[in-house]
Design brief:
Length: 259
């Protein structure tokens, strides 16, 4: 698919969104372990300093920016800031996301809007800018979209979240087609159950009602989970694949517990 990826040998400037904790933080650390310069961004800027320190401890150079992927001005400031401090972005990991559980007809208009804006429109707007820059300078690039197994196993109570991730996968696939004659790879990392703070703000009492629905449709077969570092390992594998190779989709899942 991709020509010229051999030019990507050596450190590459990477950017990770939603990097204040969890999967985003683990991905940033994993890229830092390669010795790459890494820019991290998130709305929760309070924890970004800790992420940056961990990336540098792992062997990379790191800069941190407050980033709201729903706001074009914030995106522009992020892209420009990274270019000024580290150089233009070569590797983008679209990880920022949000989810709120609820029945589709009961969720508020604002809940639906926020999920779609963060999970779908945000990656589109940021990727647009990074890809345009890569193409202008005829540079080697990797764009990675963190998705969810809800795209292949829809879950009641997570309908809008599933729609947003399905849209991300459609966008990533179309981007790959549009970049076929450029040294830019577009890849999806589809994530199964992972132990993070992603759902810390949810009403845990809802799960008393939700889990039986998931089990009814054969979705929640077991309760094992992965760690954020497992997802980071998959992302690193994607962006360090050899020049002749492209990984369009990789899905990672926890193994079932022994019987």
């Amino acid at each position: 698919m991709v020509n010229g990826l051999a030019d990507a040998d050596g450190p590459r400037v990477a950017a990770v969104t939603g990097a204040s904790a969890g999967i985003g933080r683990a991905i940033a650390i994993g890229l830092g372990m390669l010795g790459w310069p890494v820019a991290v961004g998130a709305r929760g800027a309070a924890n970004l300093g800790e992420t940056a320190q961990l990336v540098e401890d792992a062997g990379g150079r790191c800069v941190a920016y407050e980033l709201d992927v729903c706001e074009p001005a914030s995106i522009d400031a992020f892209v420009d800031g990274v270019a000024a401090e580290l150089g233009p972005i070569d590797v983008l990991v679209n990880n920022a996301g949000t989810a709120e559980p609820g029945l589709l007809h009961e969720m508020s208009d604002e809940q639906h809007r926020r999920i779609i804006a963060t999970n779908l429109l945000g990656p589109i707007l940021l990727t647009k800018r990074v890809v345009a820059g890569l193409r202008d300078r005829k540079a080697v690039g990797d764009i990675v979209f963190i998705s969810s197994d809800v795209t292949v196993h829809p879950r009641p109570y997570l309908g809008t979240y599933g729609v947003s991730k399905a849209g991300v996968e459609a966008y990533a696939t179309t981007l790959a087609m549009e970049c076929e004659d450029f040294p830019i790879r577009s890849s999806i990392v589809r994530v199964g159950p992972t132990l993070t703070g992603f759902a810390d703000t949810w009403d845990l009492g809802m799960f008393t009602d939700i889990i039986p629905h998931w089990q009814r449709f054969g979705i929640q077969r077991h309760f094992n989970t992965m760690h954020p570092e497992d997802v980071a390992r998959a992302v690193v594998s994607v962006v360090t694949a050899p020049p002749h190779m492209w990984i369009p989709v990789v899905e990672v899942q926890p193994v079932a517990p022994p019987t």
